[in-house]
Structure formats: C-alpha cells, structure tokens
Amino acid sequence: MKLTVNGVERSFETPPLTPLLHVLREELGITSPKAGCQQGGCGSCTILVDGAPRRACLLPVAALDGAEITTLEGLGSPEALSPIQTAFHEHYAAQCGFCTSGMVLAAHGYLEGGGGPERESIQKALAGHVCRCTGYVKIIDAVAAAAGGEIEATQRWLPQPGEEAPVEVPGAPA
Amino acid sequence: MTTALERGANVLLPTTEAEAVEAFGDGSGITVIGGGTIVVPDMTSGRLRPEKAMLLTGAGLSGITRDGPRITIGATTPVSELESLPAPIGPCAANVADTEIRAQGTVGGNLCAGEGLEAPRGDLQGALLAVGATVRSAGAGGETTEPLEDFLAHRKSRLLLDVSFEEPSAGAFAPLIRPHTHDYTALAVSAARGGDGTVRLAVSGVTGPAVRLPSAEAKASDPRAAADAAAAEVTFADDALASAWYRNRTLPVLVRRALTQLEEV
C-alpha cells in the first residue's frame, strides 16, 4: 500500500483493516498522532486526510490507498511555524501537550474551511477533542486569534544564542 | 495493543454497487464497513473479530441526488453531507457526534448499526422515519425497496444501498442536549409535515431502533395533548447516557418543542 505522508510517498505492508494510527506510529515512526482512547472519542489522533481532519484510529488503511495524509510534523517546522501553531505558542494553548497535535490539526481544518473567531463556532468545531488538563480557554483564545487575523502567517520562532538547533523530527518533510 | 496486528480478516474491496451486492450475498458471515467509526473501535478493542469483511469506500455508493421533490442519499454518504438538507434531516445530522465523526461516519452505517454497548445507536433513524423514507437494499431474495420501519426490523441481514424521501413541506428537530458530543443521541424527536398536510413524529433514543409516535401524530395540532400521548407509547432503558426515568420525563417536552417549531416554520 502507498500513502503520501507530509508530502513524501511512503509504502508499507500491513493488514488492510489496520487503523491508520497504527501505521503512522508503528510502521512509519510518526508519533504526533497520539494513541489516546483508540475508540474515536478523544481526538488526540486527529490527522488531515486530503486536507480535512479525521480520526486516525478509526480509518482502516485500505480505505485510504493513494490519499494525502498530513500530520503535525507536516504543518510547519520549528523554524517556520504555521499560523495556528504560532497562535498556540503565543497564547500558551499547550499544557501537557497530549491533545495539542489533534487540536492544532482540527483548528487548521477549521481555519482552512473559512471558520471565524466566534467562540461558539470554534467550540463546535473542536467538540470532539478532549483536553485532560482542561485548558480549553487558552486553546479557544488561540484559535480565535488565528481566525481573527491576529497572527502573522509566516512568524518564525528562532533559537536563542546558546540553544541547540532544533532536532530532526521523524516524519517531517525533508 | 496486539489486537491491531491480528487483523487477518479476508477483506473485500468492491469497486461498484454490483460487486458489493454480489460480495454481500445473503449477508451471512460478512462484516460491512462503511466509514469505520463503529466497526473499527470494536475491532481495536477485540469485541469484534471478523473473518470476512467488506469495505464499501470505493463502491461508488456515496452522494446525494435530487429528482424533483425526491432526495436520494447513497449508503456511504458521510453524515456531514446531510447537514445542509432540510429539517428534520439537516439539524439531526448536525447533532451527530462531532466534526470528524460526521465527516467519516456514513448514513448506511448509522442506520444499520447494531445495538450499542452503552447507548442506543442510529441517530438518523428518527429523522428519516419522520420524513417517511424508503430504503433500497440487497440481500437474500434480491433487491427490495421498502419503508424504513420495515427495513430496520431486518437491517442486520441486508446491505443498504440508498435511502430516499420526498422533501417535507416543513420539518423540526428537538434533541436532548448532551454533555459530551461523541455520545450517541440520548433522546431526540423529529417532526415533518408531508405535502398532504399529515404530520409524522418519530423518536430516537428508545430501546431498539427509533419508532414513530402514532398516538401523538393523531393529536399533532395540539402540541400539549400530543406530548401527553407520546409518553405512553414507548419504552426506555437505563444506559450510560440517561436513565429511563429521565427520558420518560423529557419525551413530552421534546414532542411539544418539535410540534411548536413545526407550527412556526
């Protein structure tokens, strides 16, 4: 089977009903989609399939042959965060980080779909995502800021003098 | 989780409706997967270990078509695509689970799902009963088209191909608001007025598949009388979403809300 993951074509052999989540984490070593409940109820495994948010734990890989998958590793890089990643960074929207990957990708899908800064519509869009730190207020602040155009699209985070260069991220585009 | 690796099922991937119908046969021993939102978690947890499965993704059964007032929805159409349809279908679809689940779960899977472990399944059944939907399905004895009520009674042995209905002249949907979006519908009342003026009412969240509320329908012009009649018509069970007692107390309220909405359309 073949899938394009973060712009790179990857092939793998796995039984056809294996969930995409297992292929990403175990076969391809891409660990931003988290294995939370694995029952479709927590949102932490959310990835983009052809640009739209989906639950990786619910998708049999056989249903995806030829699809374009985007994980958090493909959304931006430490040197050039995507607008929604910058918004999460600026608004302290990540606490323990377990739900963050799914939240960021769902929020990215919301923004790409033309979603606005209204808190109620953001809550509806992110309704399937559970934050075990209960840090919802700052997460919604971040999405509202990005939706309201308060975030520079190409804002960069640069390592400070003395800091090590960012480590290589498995699964990120070369 | 080792169960993910033990998926040695024989998986069929039909590319046309005819291939899907042939592969389904009389439906014995085959697990049908539409979007996967119900079957895949059951496999991951080990509750379900199919020996033969059919994945409908590529079978060309997705899409909504209109022919005059008649709307036909293909089996693998995602629930999210129903959100723009008229009430009660649109608001009922928008009330299902969450954004990602609605985009992946299919109409066929939602209608055909078996009994849930902790809650009734089949969120869309009530809304489609209210609009008098008919179902085209395949299985033993060949293809049939029948009212949704009849289909629901033997849905486990049939392959749903599409569901169709005439757009109602007015529709309304009154759900019990839930604390967590991923849950199935705890209780919801759908109402629709047909072209001839008759009102149909149906309730989701009862024991077993959704049902019509004929006594309440007979009193539809008086929402309060209809609400009182509805409570005597159905039985509820206690489950993880709500108690039977709470559902029983809430049903008349939802019937009254749905009929009041219907009058205001």
Explained architecture:
Chain A is an alpha+beta fold. Chain A folds into two domains: 2-74, Roll (Ubiquitin-like (UB roll)); 83-147, Orthogonal Bundle (DNA polymerase, domain 1), CATH 1.10.150. Helix content of chain A is 28%, strand content 11%. Chain A has five helices and five strands, in the order ββαβββαααα. Chain A has helices at 20-27, 83-90, 100-112, 119-125, 136-147, and strands at residues 2-5, 8-11, 46-49, 52-55, 68-70. Chain A has a five-stranded mixed beta sheet, with helices on one face. In chain A, strand 3 (46-49) and strand 4 form a beta hairpin. Chain A is globular, with a radius of gyration of 16 Å. The two termini of chain A are 22 Å apart. The model of chain A has no long low-confidence stretch (mean pLDDT 90). Chain B is α+β, with helices and mostly antiparallel strands and 265 residues long. Chain B has a domain at 170-264: Enolase-like, domain 1, CATH 3.30.390. Chain B has a five-stranded antiparallel beta sheet with strand order 4-5-8-6-7. In chain B, helix 9 packs antiparallel against helix 10 (244-264). The relative contact order of chain B is 0.13. The interface between A and B is medium-sized, with 30 and 29 residues.
- Mean pLDDT of chain A, to the nearest integer, reads 90
Named CATH architecture of the domain at 170-264 in chain B:
2-Layer Sandwich
Number of strands of chain B: 12
Kindly provide the name of the CATH class of the domain at 170-264 in chain B: Alpha Beta
Percentage of residues in DSSP E strands of chain B: 15-25%
Described by strand count, sense and barrel closure, the largest sheet of chain B is: 5 strands, antiparallel
Helix/strand class of chain B: alpha+beta
- Average pLDDT of chain B: 92
Bulk shape of chain B: globular
